[in-house]
Amino acid sequence: MAIFSPYLNPLWPDAVWDVSGAFVNDRELLAFHDFCTLLLGFAPFSIVHGAPLCTWNSGRVLKHLMRDAEEIRAAGLEYEKRRIALYYTFTNLNLKEEHMSDPLGNAMLIFARNHNPTGRNAVIMASDALLEHVRTNFPELRTVSSILKITNSGGKGKLDAYKRLAEKYDEVMVHPDDVLNYDLLEKMEDKERYILLVNEYCIRQCPLRPYHYSSLSQMALNYFGHDSTDFDEKQNKNGCRDLGTLLTHDKHSVLALNTPEIARLRELGFRHYKMQGRGHANASSILFDLLRLVLRNDAPGENAMHALGQRFWESILPHNAI
After folding, report:
1. pTM summary value
2. Reduced to 3 states, what is the DSSP secondary structure of residue 197?
3. What are phi and psi of 254, to 5 degrees?
């Protein structure tokens, strides 16, 4: 019988946490990992996902994700040191054979192949060309079907679509709306191969999601020349930025799951939970969700756990901060 740290959230002590922020929020993620490992006796997450701004990336096409080679390598080595698996978000929908020679993408694949202490380093993707490239040239890396794949192929809500993806990939990301489709989830076999996003801050049943993903993929291929005016206008009318919609709308409220919803997923047999963090200028939201979901926060230890959280925040502040 497994022995769990008393500080770990008892509602899902066997959860596999997969955290966003690789190559952008590395300092904060590593600090939180070290805090839990050294002081609380457990590793808070075992997978980190993300990618710097590059042709193969999508969903994270943002200026603050620009990184040079040394920064990328240094972050990768720190994750390797802690036996944290890297899942690259190379999720561009529009990649073709002509894009497979991208030097940064291939250099990162070589690094992941050569620095893979857990054997779990992986590539999250939505392009068949990239899938074939990884399988042929980097068979040591695991393959993961992206949310972009199930969304833009029209597979949302369809069990057969998930089965086909599970035949092609090692793991499959579930569409955020399907994370609450319990009838569908119950019918999925090999539940350990499915990844569920638990803190999606987009709206439920978003009609703009496929277009959003397609627009981001186009932008990644022509970052400085892409015109996003059309998407911006559509997003402003979509409810994404309206607090009332996000918090109270009966159909389109935010997709971030509450405690009973995550507990229900665990009861169904799912263990691999993903925390997203794309689009944020800093790590505060990711760290908030880590503290909320990974550490216990039930009533008997409420004051103690609040104090531990406070200790963590203080530990990452500069010494001269007020």
Report:
1. 0.90
2. strand
3. -60, 145
Q: 97 φ, ψ to 5°? A: -55, -35
Tokens 């499959």 locate to 172
Write out pLDDT tens, residues 191-205: 999 999 998 878 888
Q: Quick check: 149 and 165 in contact, CB under 8 A?
A: yes
Q: Which two tokens stand for residue 59?
A: 């969903």
Quickly tell me which residue has 């191969």 as its tokens.
193
Place of tokens 């638990």: 198
| Residue 207 one-letter amino acid | P
173, 144 in Cβ contact below 8 A? yes
pLDDT given for residue 261 in this prediction: 94
Can you read off the two tokens belonging to residue 267? Answer: 């009861």
DSSP 61: -
Q: For the segment 251-267, what is each residue's pLDDT rounded down to a tens digit?
A: 666 778 989 999 999 99
Cα(117)–Cα(142) distance, rounded to whole angstroms? 13
